[in-house]
Structure prediction request, 422 residues.
Amino acid sequence: ALPPWPAGVFPEAVGDFVASLATATETPEELPALFVLAVLSTAAGGRFQVAVKRGYFEPCHVWSCPALPPGSRKSAVKVAVTAPLMKWEREQRQSMELEIKSAEATHKTLSDRIAALRKKAAGASGMAFESLSDEITRLESDLPIIPKAPQLWADDVTPEHLGTLLSDNQERLAVLSDESAVFEQMAGRYSGGIPNLDVFLQAHAGTPVRVDRGSRPSVFLYRPALTLGVSPQPDVLRGLASKPGFRVRGLLARFLFALPPSNLGRRTGQTPPLSEDLRLRWEGHVTALLNLPMATDDHGQPCPHTLTLTQEARITWESFWQRTEADMGMGGRFERLTDWAGKLPGAVARIAGLLHIARNAFRGPHTLEISEADMVAAVRIGDCLSAHALAVFGMMNGSVILDDARYVLRWLQAERLDTFTF
Prediction:
């Protein structure tokens, strides 16, 4: 029996939104909770980092993966949670529409003129050729850069295109989906089954990425921030550990997994809808974070705001780190899950940062320290997700025989039989 999502870990308005959405859609609370963390990560990713201790920083973006069977209303939850992102993107496109059209028109006019001059220069020589070449060079330098409306997230993206999208969007992007397409892309759906994980791995860590391919423009990212929020079917998770590189390169170790019990067969269809007030409050939190400007470094370049911990929060995190470290030793519960558990304290620091950011969305999160309360809440989330991770990795490494045994055990528990026939 896996622990339920811990109560009271989110700021009040966000927690009420999660609970109300779970009730309205009759879904386990883990589903909206982990999608909410992913959307907060989308809004805050690349804009904040947590100074856990001297010289150790964690970026504020996470990868969440609640797994539920088909028909569980995952799409309804994703649409409700991501609605503020969609609205913000639409408003940004509308505000930039005239600027984009003007730049496109100027670019086309100059390009046509350059093409005509090139044609003329092809038959010229001497001073006439040099004059035409100078004119072409001048016009090319005047070609405007056509601005692009910001894109916060994608539902499906190839690894090859991911670097380009990050580069085009200030090195910040999210992949949010209620399906498993992103795992198929990572495994090499369009590259002959050859996995391409580098950009994903580096964009989770926030380390520089350089991609040089002969057929595409080069991409260089200084501090990429990639959020993942996906909700595949449990059967999809079973096969992930066998995919080349997924386990050994640490890809699976980066996910916050949840395997909540399905509500299928127990729903009533009579639950109240999500209230407009809670929807608007959630939208307000996300929009406030998206509109918060980034910090700048000593050279005037954009950089993330650094969040610091109170002394009590640091002590709480260090205690959790020590407990997790001990559990990775021989005989500990993470003895065979050291890859995932080794990243757990860092994930807890990231979650604490997101809780702090959500709580202070309207007060400037970067002006306040992360409190002990938010760190304690993050530790509770980490403890809950630890049990789910053990179950998920056990399922990945399990067998059909073990699955059948679990099915029989659930049947015995439901029927309360002392004896039964074959």
